[in-house]
Design brief:
Low-confidence stretches: 1-22, 251-276
EC number: 3.2.1.39
GO biological process, one term: carbohydrate metabolic process
Number of strands: 18
CATH class of the largest domain: Alpha Beta
Order of helices and strands: EEHEHEHEHEEEEHEHEEHEEEHEEHHE
Oligomer: single chain
CATH topology of the largest domain: TIM Barrel
Shape: globular
Family: Belongs to the glycosyl hydrolase 17 family.
Number of domains: 2
Protein name: glucan endo-1,3-beta-D-glucosidase
Strand content: 15-25%
Mean pLDDT: 82
Enzyme class: hydrolase
């Protein structure tokens, strides 16, 4: 019987899932290390307003699971590292599933349970606890007839690699090989995703900013071992993980990695099956970093281009055409999160649920279209286009006046997006109606937020 598993990775935090049988997805991490966040019910409405269909949480708080019931939003639920010792007991895990998960499922659409996070970064015996805990969770799911319906995995740190350049020489730290072999066996056996946190933004010291932001106009390097060309750091890091898995399995003679310029896949001994799926968490540009490159403009550029890259279906140089599921970190700025100041400023929204910057999510598709301002346009070009739309173009710009429902966030891109869309819908939603001298772009996801509603199919 053919077996396979998925691979997951992180940027602002990004979850990436490769699956050749369906389209790509983009979701968000919902962290809660803060004392000023809105209620889970408010968050559920916010997420729906912004067409975010996929969410990852780091815990299993009942008020959160309840808030997302009957929303259709897919949740990835997390078991903290602190719980791993208790999860060595099968009776404990059976009870946990009955009391913490089953009361909310399937009304709350739980699709994954992540057991621990970055366990190789923690001292003592943490890494050795994760696979037994995962097996206990699968056993409990099987008893509840949910095996296969809810996938089980654990996100690893990109730091588990001892080498990542060139990508084809990607390798895991030898100190973790035994744990990783057990993990790979589990993932193959249960057709679950391999998860890894990527950090392209921290590669700026070795690479140009354009390479991190998906803006390089040409190849940044060629992997001399494979002949594959790379134009961004995200693809390079992700392919390094692919090769690390392949190289580890190859050394054990269990799996071989068939790497050709046109196709790369895992061939399992005696099965000829592919490891099709990868989930990736990705840390990207944050707000208020001490570093010059971490600012709102770069954060918007990175995440906008990341979504475009993922949804474009190009895959990576080593996995062309692969579909990717991506979860961006994070939904909110988290004022209690440990670590440097940058760790507390990755949010797409502030605690008042105002967008830090515009970001359009693909969701599940609606067949509708909107027109928004391009984050790549210059301020002068945007201002001219905004003035024209609200003036000669006769767009209704009353909602973006001070004190009105769409005034916040008070940014040129946000105001121009609302005006552009109003004009676009009033003028037949044609391509020409979203030109604005090259500063407008059509999107298929509703950019509405809170009480600020972007019209679609404008009624005269």
């Amino acid at each position: 019987m053919a077996s396979r598993f998925k691979l997951v990775s992180a940027l602002s935090l990004l979850l990436l899932l490769l699956d050749f049988c369906r389209g790509s997805k983009v979701g968000v991490d919902y962290g809660m290390d803060a004392d000023n966040l809105p209620s889970p019910d408010q968050v559920a409405q916010l997420v729906r307003n912004h067409n975010i269909q996929y969410l990852r949480i780091y815990n299993y708080r009942p008020e959160v699971l309840k808030a997302f019931s009957n929303t259709g939003i897919e949740l990835m639920v997390g078991v903290p590292n602190a719980d791993l010792s208790q999860f060595q007991s099968q009776p404990y895990v059976d009870s946990w599933l009955r009391t913490s998960i089953l009361p909310y499922y399937p009304a709350t659409k739980i699709t994954h349970i992540t057991v621990g996070v970055e366990v190789t970064n923690y001292p003592d015996n943490t890494a050795n606890l994760v696979v037994p805990a995962m097996r206990n969770v699968v056993s409990a799911l099987k008893s509840a007839n949910l095996q296969g319906k809810i996938k089980v995995s654990t996100p690893l740190s990109f730091g588990v690699l001892s080498k990542s350049f060139p990508p084809s020489e990607g390798a895991f730290n030898s100190g973790y090989e035994n744990v990783l072999r057990l993990l790979l066996d589990f993932l193959e056996e249960n057709q679950s995703p391999f998860m890894v946190n990527l950090y392209p933004i921290y590669a700026i010291g070795d690479s140009s900013l354009d390479a991190v932001l998906f803006k390089s106009p040409s190849t940044i390097f060629v992997d001399q071992n494979t002949g594959l060309s790379y134009k961004n750091i995200f693809d390079a890091q992700l392919d390094a993980v692919f090769y690390a898995i392949a190289n580890l399995n190859f050394r054990t003679t269990r799996n071989a990695f068939d790497a050709q310029p046109d196709t790369v896949h895992f061939t399992l001994a005696n099965t000829n099956s592919r490891i099709n799926d990868i989930i990736t968490y990705n840390y990207g540009a944050s707000l208020d970093s001490v570093d010059d490159y971490a600012n709102i403009d770069n954060a918007q550029t990175y995440n906008t281009n990341l979504i475009s890259h993922v949804m474009g279906g190009s895959g990576t140089p080593a996995r062309p055409g692969a579909n990717l599921d991506v979860y961006i970190f994070s939904l909110f700025n988290e004022n209690l999160k440990q670590g440097p100041e940058t760790e507390r400023n990755f949010g797409l929204f502030d605690p008042e649920m105002r967008s830090v910057y515009n970001l359009n999510f693909p969701g599940k598709g609606t067949g509708k279209s909107w027109c928004v301002a391009s984050s790549q346009a210059s301020n002068s070009a945007l201002q001219n286009a905004l003035d024209w739309a609200c003036g000669q173009g006769k767009a209704d710009c009353s909602a973006i006046q001070p004190g009105q429902r769409c005034f916040q966030p008070d940014t040129l891109v946000s105001h121009a997006s609302f005006a552009f869309n109003n004009y676009y819908q009033k003028n037949g939603a044609t391509d020409d109606a979203c030109s604005f001298g090259g500063t407008g772009i059509k999107v298929s996801t509703d950019p509405s937020y809170g009480n600020c509603i972007y019209n679609c199919k404008y009624k005269f």
